[in-house]
Design a protein that fits this description.
The protein is an alpha+beta fold. Helix content is 32%, strand content 25%. The strands form three sheets. Strands 8-10-7-11-9-12-13 form a seven-stranded mixed sheet. β1 and β2 form a beta hairpin. α2 runs parallel beside α3 and α4 packs across α5. The protein is globular. 44% of the residues are buried. It binds adenosine-5'-diphosphate and magnesium ion. The site of adenosine-5'-diphosphate has 14 residues, from α1, β4 and β5.
C-alpha cells in the first residue's frame, strides 16, 4: 500500500465541511488545511507526542494508542477550559501493519467523534513507532483558565479518582499476578488504556476555577506546577483523596502513593474561591465524574500534605523524562 492509499484508507473520513460554524475550508488531501475559527474566538493550540516504550507499551491494543494520542491533547485543551475543534496527526510507523493501523484509527476516531473534533491533516512516515497530535481549540477572550491565578483561601479540587491509571498499567504489565476481583481489575486497566479527557467539565470550569491543569505526571507533581505558576502554596489532606474502590481493593498498600505520584490520570486539578463553591457543585451535578475538594491554597510555596493532622512525606514520582 502506498502512502496515499494508506492515508485515504485510514485517516480521511468525511469531516464536517464549511457549515454553520464555517469550520473546515480545506481538509485532508491538500498541502495544508484551511480552518476558520468562529468569529470572536481565540485559537488554543497544544501538542503531545507519544513514543513507544516511553508513553505506551508495544503490546497495548492499537485502539488504545489511537485513543491516547488524541485524549492527552483533548485533556490539555480541557485544562484550558477551551473547546477542541481540529487535530493534525504526525505518525511514524516501522511498517504498514493493517490490523494495527485500523485499530489505531478506530480508537482515534471514536474519541474524535464523541467530541466533534475533526482530523484535518497530518504526516505519515516510516520510523520507530511514535504519534504526535496537535490540537486546535477555540475560546472566547477571557474564557481560558491558566495555571496561574490561584489565590490564598481557594479550595483545591480534583476530578475523578487519581491513581487508577497507574494501577491499571502495573496490572497490565504483570498479567499473571493473581489478584482476584476481575471486574475491578478490568476497570483499572481500562482507566489506563482509555483515559477519558474531561472536555465538557473543563469548559464548564471557565469563570469558576481561578487556576487549572490536567494531571498527567502525578497529582503531587502537577499540583506543584499550578502552585509555582500561581506563586502560592497549599495545605492538602490525604484523608480527602478520592481513592476508588478498585484502587483500594487491589492496591491497599500503594493506593495513596499511586494517587499522588502515579500519573497518566488525565483528570483536572483546579482551584475555586469559596464564593464559587456552590456554583461548582451545582455544575458538577450533571457530570459523569466526581469532583472532590482535597486542600486549600495558602500563602507560601509548595504542597504540604497531611494525614490525620500529621505531615505526610510524598515519595518521589515514578515519572521523570530527563
Ligand atoms: P505533503 O507531501 O504535501 O506533506 P502528504 O503526502 O504528506 O503531503 O499528505 C497528503 C495529505 O494527507 C495532506 O493533506 C496531509 O495533511 C494528509 N495526511 C498525511 N498523513 C496523515 C495522517 N496520518 N492523518 C491525517 N492526515 C494525513
Ligand atoms: Mg507530508
Amino acid at each position: 500500500m502506498d502512502e496515499r492509499a494508506l492515508i485515504r484508507r485510514y485517516f480521511s473520513r468525511s469531516a464536517p465541511l464549511a457549515g454553520e460554524r464555517s469550520a473546515i475550508i480545506v481538509g485532508i488531501g491538500d498541502d495544508g488545511a484551511v480552518l476558520r475559527p468562529e468569529p470572536g474566538y481565540d485559537l488554543v493550540v497544544a501538542i503531545d507526542t507519544l513514543v513507544e516504550g516511553t508513553h505506551f507499551l508495544r503490546d497495548m491494543p492499537s485502539a488504545a494508542v489511537g485513543h491516547r494520542c488524541l485524549a492527552v491533547n483533548l485533556s490539555d485543551v480541557a485544562a484550558m477550559a477551551a473547546e477542541p475543534r481540529w487535530a493534525v496527526l504526525a505518525l511514524a510507523i516501522p511498517e504498514v501493519d493493517e490490523a494495527w493501523l485500523s485499530g489505531f484509527a478506530d480508537g482515534l476516531f471514536a474519541l474524535a467523534d464523541r467530541y466533534n473534533v475533526a482530523l484535518v491533516g497530518g504526516d505519515t512516515v516510516r520510523g520507530p513507532l511514535a504519534a504526535t497530535v496537535t490540537i486546535h481549540g477555540q475560546a472566547r477572550p477571557g474564557q481560558v483558565v491558566q495555571r496561574r491565578g490561584a489565590q490564598p483561601g481557594d479550595g483545591v479540587w480534583v476530578t475523578g479518582s487519581p491513581g487508577d491509571a497507574v494501577a491499571g498499567r502495573l496490572l497490565l504489565m504483570d498479567p499473571d499476578k493473581k489478584t482476584g476481583h476481575d471486574e475491578l481489575r478490568q476497570e483499572l486497566i481500562r482507566r489506563f488504556l482509555f483515559p477519558e479527557p474531561r472536555v465538557l467539565e473543563g469548559q464548564q470550569l471557565s469563570g469558576l476555577a481561578t487556576a487549572m491543569l490536567d494531571v498527567s505526571d502525578g497529582l503531587h507533581d502537577d499540583l506543584g506546577k499550578l502552585l509555582a505558576a500561581s506563586n502560592v502554596g497549599a495545605e492538602m489532606d490525604i484523608g480527602c483523596l478520592p481513592l476508588s474502590t478498585a484502587l483500594q481493593t487491589l492496591c491497599p498498600r500503594d493506593a495513596i502513593e499511586h494517587a499522588l505520584t502515579g500519573g497518566d490520570d488525565y483528570e483536572l486539578c483546579f482551584t475555586v474561591p469559596a464564593a464559587a463553591e456552590s456554583s461548582l457543585l451545582k455544575a458538577a451535578e450533571s457530570w459523569p465524574v466526581s469532583v472532590t475538594r482535597i486542600g486549600t491554597i495558602i500563602a507560601g510555596e509548595g504542597a504540604r500534605w497531611s494525614l490525620d493532622g500529621r505531615p505526610y512525606r510524598v515519595p518521589d514520582s515514578l515519572w521523570q523524562h530527563f
